[in-house]
Amino acid sequence: MKTNVKKIKLAFGSEKLELEVPEKNLSSVIMPSEPEKRKEGAFLIKKALENPIKSRRLSEIVNPESKVAVIVSDVTRPTPTAKLLPPLLEELYLGGAKAENITIVFALGLHRRQTEEESRKLVGDEIYGKIRCIQHDTGRCRRVGVTSRRTPVEVFEEVLDSDVVVGTGGIEFHYYAGYSGGAKSVLPGVSSEASVLTNHKLMIEEKAVSGRIDSPVRQDMEEAVKIAGLDFILNVVLDSKKGIVAAVAGDFIEAHRKGVEAVDAMYKVPVEPADAVIVSCGGYPKDINLYQANKSLDNATQAVKDGGSIILVAECSEGIGNQIYECWNRECKTPDEAVERFKRCFEFGGHKSAIVAKAAKQFKLYLVSKLREEDTRDAFFTPMGSVLEALEEILSKNPDAKIHLMPHGGQTLPVRKEE
Predict the structure, then answer these.
(1) What stretches of 103-145 show up as alpha helix (H) in DSSP?
(2) Which sequence spans correspond to the domains of the chain?
(3) For domain 5-30+272-416, is the CATH number 3.90.226.30?
(4) Which position among 136, 174, 351, 404 bears the catalytic label?
(5) What architecture is the 41-266 domain classified under in CATH?
């Protein structure tokens, strides 16, 4: 009977895979520090609206004549918009704003348009029928300036023509903007294609990584939003069960930073880099395709030594998940080729290939998934039939290898202690 192994379950799609790791090899299990008990989301939202950061209350900003635009996340984001809107509208009504003067704008960025059913579900049946709801249109943007990094500030005219602009969303780690939330509701949320692509080209800079508030992508976003205007934000922080654990409101930079503190306290974990990391995305839908699963890979790179190994556990039931990403994987035969191509030609989707290629140049990448072996190799991973098989491969080369486990790779950000 084995007594010197640590058993742990890793999410894989809708299943759980049980893994046994020899205790002598186990460095740590990297877990978030989520609160065991949390206050009701509605209470947290109401308190945030009543105590805005570096701002007057929203009810003091609007008046009965105000034309108000409320920017909300689209269907690709986990933001619980239907929970945010009722107390937010209540605050607007308290200031005299009229329902007929309020417009809810879905921040699509460069994503597809939503179906009416998706839009209705996001805001809730009662609000969808009472408040005007529209979707962002990149073809209806006006230029109002340019940032110091030469990003054109071109914003949806419905937002620019409003007297008061309110941004809503969630704050979590973002793999090149540092964090989501805050200014992101405007750029990329309701900006032109030129604005979005120019801003996103900054993702190849060194500081454009998860958990850095000084990411050049975010700095550029915030500069653009100072030009375009964003009067107030309401952002929330969610735990791994999608429950609201914090809410912030007020100035789009200062309130955002307070939300960032809550994210860091729960999900930044100091670690000593190990020889290898086994990382699960946390299951469906975070590992629905390789495009999404790569967020966990990005986080895991912070917990492994240069030249070490990463085992990514991601079902990828819907394949690669992006046609341009898939195309780059087929056409770029080596990691160097993908990185050099991205430097010459920015193409959204291709950036994923370049980011994985950069990791593949630094670490040995293994993937446990349902992808075809050919597709896995094209994406710069070594395919493995199981987590155990990948673990045995690593231990066969270094029996004394120290290994971190990351069961919630998409939310947990290791921070190197040496830094």
Answers:
(1) 116-123, 125-130
(2) 5-30+272-416, 41-266
(3) yes
(4) 174
(5) 3-Layer(aba) Sandwich (3.40)
Q: What is the mean pLDDT of the chain?
A: 93
User: Residue 419: what pLDDT?
Assistant: 46
Q: What is the pLDDT of residues 131-172, one digit of tens each?
A: 999 999 999 999 999 999 999 999 999 999 999 999 999 999
pLDDT per position as a tens digit, 261-294: 999 999 999 999 999 999 999 888 789 899 989 9
Task: Check residues 136 and 239 and name the one with the higher pLDDT.
Answer: 136
408 is catalytic: no
Beta bridge partner(s), residue 133: 104
β-pair partners for 374: none
The count of other CB atoms within 10 Å of the CB of residue 373 is 14
Of 236, 352, 229, the residue nearest 292 (C-alpha)? 352
At residue 1, the pLDDT reads 38
Nearest to 166 by CA among 147, 186, 180: 186
Report the amino acid identity of residue 349: G
Contacts of 417 (CB under 8 A, 6+ apart): 270, 271, 272
What pLDDT, on the 0 to 100 scale, is given for residue 343? 83
Among 388, 390, 386, 341, smallest CA distance to 364 is for 390
- Token pair 């673990």 is at which residue? 391
Q: Is 200 a catalytic residue?
A: no
Q: Is 270 exposed, middle or buried (0-12, 13-18, 19+ CB in 10 A)?
A: exposed
